[in-house]
From TrEMBL:
GO cellular component assignments: cytoplasm
Name of the top EC class for this enzyme: transferase
Organism: Candidatus [Bacteroides] periocalifornicus
Protein name in UniProt: S-adenosylmethionine:tRNA ribosyltransferase-isomerase
Classification via PANTHER family: S-ADENOSYLMETHIONINE:TRNA RIBOSYLTRANSFERASE-ISOMERASE
Main location as per UniProt: cytoplasm
Localization per Swiss-Prot or TrEMBL: Cytoplasm
Lineage: Bacteria, Pseudomonadati, Bacteroidota
Pathway listed: tRNA modification; tRNA-queuosine biosynthesis
Length: 349
C-alpha cells in the first residue's frame, strides 16, 4: 500500500488538546467487521462488549518526563533535549534527540536547570537529529535519575498544540503504568478508569499485561510512498510467560482477546506462531504492521483515532481491513470525534 492512501482531511479543531474530564467518558465508535455495523457509544460501554472468560490485554509501560530544556555553553542558545533511552547507567550515557540539531556538535556542553544543576557533554552523533549525551554527575545512579527527571517535563506530542500543564502529569499516563521506559503514552489505555477495570473484573474479564516501551518511532514521520520500504525503529518489548499463558488459554476456550492499542497489537504480533500461539519474549521489535498484513492474534481492538499517515493508523487498517477503517474515519470526521493523543476511541469487533 501507499502512504497517500492514509491521507485524509482532518480539521485542526478535531485534534484534541485536553483529555476528557473523566477517563471513561470519551466517545467510543463501535465497528463490527462481520456485518459493517457502526454504533456510537461512550468508552465506559466497553463493559458491554466483554464477558466472562474474555481477556483485556494492556500495555503497562510508564512514561517518564523525557523533555528537557537547556542552554548551550558559551552562546546560551536554547536547546531542547528529548531523552529516548539510557544506554549505560554507569557512564550516564543517554540516546537523545536535540532541537535544533544543527547547533550541536561533538564536545559541546549543555546546561540544565537553575544554577546549571545538570551538565551534559555531547559524545556522539548517532543520527541526523539524534545524539549521545554523557551526563556529568558523580552521585548515586538513583539520585542522578531523580535529578534528571525532576528537570524533565511530560513529553506531550507536538500535535497536542500546547505545552504540558499540571493535568498532564496524571492524565498522560495509564492508571496501570508500572514499568518505566516510554517516551509516549499508549494512548488507547488513557481512557481506562479504575472503576471500569473493577467492573470488568467483577464480570469475569481477565486482565493481561504486556510491555512495549514506546520510543522514537512514535514521533518519526513516514517519508516513503511505498510502505514496504519504511524501516521502523526498534522498541523494547516484554511478554511474560504468565501473560502468554493467559492469552493462549483464552483463545483455546474460544473467548475474546481484546488488545488495548496498537502497541499491544505490535507486541503480540512480534511473538506469534503460525498456529496462533503467543510466546513469552523479552527483547526488541521493529515490526511495522500495514495492509495487506492481517493481524493474527487479538480478536478485538480498542484504539484512538489517529492522525493522517501515521503508523498507528496503518496498524488499525491491518486489523479492520482498509475499506472499513476508511469508513470509520470518514464517519468520525463527519460526527466530529476528537483525534490524536487525547482524542476519542474506537472498538473494533
Amino acid at each position: 500500500m501507499k502512504l497517500s492512501q492514509f491521507q485524509f482531511d482532518l480539521p485542526q479543531e478535531l485534534v484534541a488538546r485536553y483529555p476528557t474530564e473523566e477517563r471513561d467518558k470519551a466517545r467510543l465508535m463501535v465497528g463490527t467487521r462481520r456485518n459493517g455495523k457502526i454504533e456510537h457509544k461512550q468508552f465506559k460501554d466497553l463493559l458491554h462488549y466483554l464477558g466472562d472468560g474474555d481477556t483485556l490485554v494492556m500495555n503497562d509501560t510508564k512514561v517518564f518526563p523525557a523533555r528537557l530544556h537547556g542552554k548551550k555553553e558559551k552562546t546560551q542558545a536554547d536547546i531542547e533535549v528529548f531523552l529516548l533511552r539510557e544506554l549505560n547507567a554507569e557512564s550516564r550515557l543517554w540516546d537523545v534527540l536535540v532541537d535544533p540539531a544543527r547547533k550541536i556538535r561533538i564536545g559541546n556542553k549543555l546546561y540544565f536547570g537553575e544554577g546549571d544543576m545538570m551538565v551534559a557533554e555531547v559524545v556522539d552523533n548517532t543520527t541526523s537529529r539524534g545524539r549521545t549525551l554523557r551526563f556529568l554527575y558523580d552521585g548515586p545512579h538513583e539520585e542522578f535519575r531523580a535529578r534528571l527527571f525532576e528537570l524533565g517535563e511530560t513529553p506531550l506530542p507536538k500535535s497536542v498544540g500546547r505545552p504540558p500543564e499540571p493535568v498532564d502529569v496524571e492524565r498522560y499516563q495509564t492508571i496501570y503504568a508500572e514499568h518505566e521506559g516510554a517516551v509516549a503514552a499508549p494512548t488507547a489505555g488513557l481512557h481506562i478508569s479504575r472503576e471500569l477495570l473493577k467492573r470488568l473484573q467483577i464480570k469475569g474479564v481477565n486482565l493481561g499485561f504486556i510491555t512495549l516501551h514506546v520510543g522514537l518511532g512514535n514521533f518519526r514521520r513516514i517519508e516513503v510512498e511505498d510502505l514496504s520500504k519504511h524501516k521502523a525503529d526498534a522498541e523494547q518489548i516484554v511478554i511474560t510467560q504468565a501473560a502468554a499463558d493467559l492469552i493462549n488459554n483464552t483463545l483455546d476456550k474460544g473467548k475474546q482477546v481484546c488488545a488495548v492499542g496498537t502497541t499491544v497489537v505490535r507486541t503480540l504480533e512480534s511473538s506469534v506462531t503460525t498456529d496462533n500461539r503467543v510466546l513469552s519474549f523479552s527483547g526488541w521489535t521493529n515490526k511495522f504492521i500495514f495492509p495487506p498484513y492481517a493481524v493474527q492474534l487479538p480478536t478485538m481492538l480498542v484504539t484512538n483515532f489517529h492522525l493522517p499517515c501515521t503508523a498507528q493508523m496503518m496498524t488499525v487498517a491491518s486489523f479492520t481491513g482498509y475499506e472499513f477503517m476508511r469508513e470509520m474515519y470518514e464517519i468520525a470526521v463527519r460526527e466530529k470525534y476528537q483525534f490524536g493523543t487525547y482524542g476519542d476511541a474506537m472498538l473494533v469487533l
